[in-house]
Amino acid sequence: MSLIGSGLGACSVRSWSMDRSSPALAPVRADWDRVIRTTVGLRPHRPSGFVLRADRLGETTVIHNYGHGGAGMSISWGTGQLAAEMALEHDSRAAAVIGCGVVGLTCARQLQRRGFGVTIYAMTVPPNTTSNMSLAGFTPTSGLVDGDLRTSAWDAQFREAAEISYRQLQLLVGRGYGVSWLRSYALSDREPRARQDSREPERTPLLPAQLRTGTTRLGPGEHPFPTRYATRRTQMRIEPTIYLEALVRDFVDFGGRIVIRKFTEPRELAALEESLVINCTGLGARDLFGDTELMPVKGQLTVLVPQPEVEYGTFGGARPSRGGLGIHMQPRSDGIVLGGTAERGEWSLEPDREAMEHIVTAHQALFSAMRG
């Protein structure tokens, strides 16, 4: 089974532009003495995709909203809206959201927009959530679903959620949420081709064409990278620390309440004063609700000292690291973020030295070979 999507290189090409102009690009200084931290996060992956449905737990209604893989930052506004619309069928207008990562926070905000009083119950809050450990951009198919387990009903639910989120994120650009547009380059020695997906010859692509920005194919001599080809695209970047703190602030400003609490059994949820509960526990749903399909996908990021002059991202340009994911770089205000790991079934939160060395040295080779 193969993962649908892994960042910039996952989307099929939508359209080619003939514009070959490109601003001068400053190389990243990926020196070891510029490394300031390495972080690890466990993406909550379900091979058959996220869960978004309502169940009963005695007298309590539980709406499940979890299992977003590496796409939580991208699609959570949409799944949150769909969950909130399910909640409107309940008589009560007091809701409990379990989890304070991006999925829980955006769901809570969607509930507030529909008149609910919301309490978030969570074991951790930003900046200590899994969401804080993400690279973060609009990559809505990243590590989300195994292609041969897709269904037409799930695809429709995903596409609706992705469209909602794409519109919502655009509205946050330039408003202090850490959301912005960034030029990115997918690097390869193999010539990119116009859209075709041999993996799914008889299926509609998972991501609708209107949610993909156009691309510019740059050949040898038309870009500064050491690879033969570079495909340029403008994509949304999300800075997790800024974004999540802004969502917490909005939630509290609109009357929300956060309670630090850990749940170990479903009956503890049924004992809450709220009879409407939205489960946004991510990987925690494996133990809390016995969803054994949930598995961790370990992702590791190494962060360099910020370089304000670096205003572009990259994907690829070296052999894949663990999990078959290409290396990638994204600049943020808190540092230059280097990534490239996706280890299925790995529960360790300890940084892997070998993976870090591969990611850093691969980026050193890439950027030291850039042409001025």
Find the structural class using helix and strand composition. Answer: alpha/beta
Instruction: Identify the CATH architecture of the largest domain.
Output: 2-Layer Sandwich
Number of domains: 2
Q: How far apart, in Å, are the first and last alpha carbons?
A: 41 Å
Order of helices and strands: EEEEHEHEHEEEHEHEHEEEEEH
Strand content: 25-35%
Number of strands: 16
Helix content: 10-25%
CATH superfamily of the largest domain: D-Amino Acid Oxidase, subunit A, domain 2
How would you describe the overall organization of this protein?
The protein has 372 residues and is of the alpha/beta class. It has 2 domains: 7-45 and 180-194 and 205-238 and 296-368, D-Amino Acid Oxidase, subunit A, domain 2 (D-Amino Acid Oxidase, Chain A, domain 2), CATH 3.30.9; 51-149 and 240-293, NAD(P)-binding Rossmann-like Domain (Rossmann fold), CATH 3.40.50. Helix content is 24%, strand content 26%. It has 7 helices and 16 strands. Strands 1, 2, 7, 8, 9, 12, 13, 14, 15 and 16 form a 10-stranded mixed sheet that branches. α1 packs across α3 (152-172) and α2 runs parallel beside α4. The N and C termini lie far apart (41 Å). The model is unreliable at 1-18 and 196-200 (pLDDT under 50).
